Amino acid sequence: MAGMRPPAGLRPRRLLLPLSLLIAGVQGVACAGSPAVAAPNNSSTGSNATDLASVVRPAAPVRGMTLEARQLNVGLGGGGSARKAAPRGLSGWSLAGQSSALAAPIASPPGHEPDAADRQPAAPSAQQPQRRHEVFGFAPYWTLPQEQSYDFASLSTVAYFGIDVNGDGSLVQSGAGWSGFQSPDLVDLVARAHASQARVVLVAKTFDAGALHRLSSDPGAADRMAGQLAQAIRWKGMDGANLDFEGGDGADRAGFTAFVTRVSQDLHAADPHWQVTVDTYASAALDAAGMVNVGALAPAVDGFFVMAYDMNSFGAPSPTAPLNGRDWNDTRAMSSYLAVVPSAKVILGIPFYGYQWPTSDGSSRARAVGAAHAISYGQLAAARPPVQWDDSAGVPYTAYQDTSGQWWQAYFDDPQSVALKTQLADGLGLAGVGVWALGMEGGDQAMMAALLGQVPILKDPFASTGVARGGAPPLPVSDNSYPAGLPPPRPSNSPSSQSATAQAPARTPPAQQQAPGPRPTSTPAAQPPGAQPPAAPPPTVAPQPSPVQTPAGSPTPVPTRTPTPTPTPVSSTPTPTPTPTPAQSPTPAPPPTPPSARLLHFEAEALPGAAAPPTTAPHSVQQGALWSGGGQLLVQPSAVGQEVSVQVQVPAGGTYQLLVDPSLGPRYGICTVEVDGRAVGGFNGYSPALASPQSASAIATVTLAAGAHTLTFVVTGKDPRSAGYLTGIDFVELSPPS
Q1: Which fold has domain 491-523+595-735?
Q2: Model pTM score
Q3: Residue 68 has pLDDT above 90, yes or no
Q4: CATH 2.60.120.260 occupies which residues in the chain?
């Protein structure tokens, strides 16, 4: 998401940030609203300010107070108006008391002596009602390896950023975003978010003006995109979509409105529970010449994530997301939206980053002598520069010198300014607040706490009701396990779809691309240097194996030798002696299939229990002719999150496709599958009638060493149509990849 586009008459118009800012640094504060965060590299002055902590030399302290003594500005009309002391739990946000403090404490102003309660967000009381406002956070693909540090309890919606869209509406099945989409880290993110009753939505995006024009003018693009997007959402058990389309112009305004309206209608038809939101510039509600017609789209979508940042002048130090002041700011932007959109459909986007400029001196808004550099709050917090406060804008800033003597100024948002923006959103009755992007807070819990405000957060009790975590039964599945509607990836990226053995053909998992920070148990085997991946044959429907399968890997029967011809009796009449024909050599028997190439079949009800992770769910063996071995492992949880662990023996190390045959029925829930304690996929067991699929469903591709391994089945929720949370496992298979 690249920043805002100011309305005519307020500031010079600009469409997008420079590409260098969008892709710089840690790969980014890019898109979903912002450029990439990067520490400055001041080549023009011969210095490098990457390690701020080692080079900071402060400017003179701000007159008055530091962060821990500041009071909340609750005025909505301009800087410095209507001040009053904040209630306990919001007034302090004392960074001096946090591990990532920005400011050293100084004397408090008369009449206020901060104590421990002032310096920490207030803990919710036992009587506090269920939280009711939206906290929407973008999770970029490059932060997936850190997803375990996300504060899911403070979020209502997590938006995975994201998958690119072609001009014809098809999804781009390549690139880092697509690799992250297929990674086990995303599986884990979805499971963790759902455990906290937070929904997960998939971001579909493009910033290409040509592609946006095609999407807006192609009558089939909306249905094509919605169809493939719905399958992708179901495939990963997600809960909706966020549309991030930036860079178009007013010529496509009517076509873009029709396109987004149709996409939203199609997605809601696929699942009425899904959330569909659109990302918009802060000025879009006033921009009658822009691509996005906010008022016309309001009835069709569930909400607008307003990218209320990048409102600074890149030529001079200035606030990135001012709350008030003479410039275009959050308060004015929200007022313009409320004139054309119901407040319940507006999410105020807040940046967890800012910009810093090399400047001529340390005075406020000094002249810039170089280009702006994006920098995350986490980077600034770790450096601990002196923090000052811009009263007119309601945001902090800092001025410091590096070791070469070069002055730098940075404007950013901290817990205090984030709390002020949250208070603005709650006061206006907005749907809530959101952030670009998770991970940029540097682990400072005060930043996430500031998003909560005084209005309860809106949690979604149905957030864990998406269809699968790794495969997508009962969707139609082709032999490469892609959900119906998604075209297969390019052959150069696809594993061969030939069956592993003639006796037990197995479906091939989706192509696995390298994801950021891949986990070693989920990556495909490496190709030899210079080797080309095998081309995939045309997609075909895999044969369905019978419920009880003959163990694979038996030696092929030895062919019988060709019989020697019976010689003709000797006649009294001499005949020429024929030239002897050499006897045929016997056909050699093929060597036995090595253990690592055999299909391993395990009846779940016969598997022994595993010590860790410990089994916490009640379970039993249910017998009946419906299941392949005459029975199934039936998990009967008393609470979501309970699990059963079993042990399997792998005779030879290698890469395997994990397949599970779950039972389906009207009382069955959603299950996450873990291998050795790591979530790799899952399934939705709901079906109107009790059934056991005729073939197992692909969950994930895993690399296992020879020996014992633990499979854990965790009950993580249920389909809204289901009457219970049961989980049934008929059998498990480990199939060598084709």
Answers
A1: Jelly Rolls (2.60.120)
A2: 0.55
A3: no
A4: 491-523+595-735
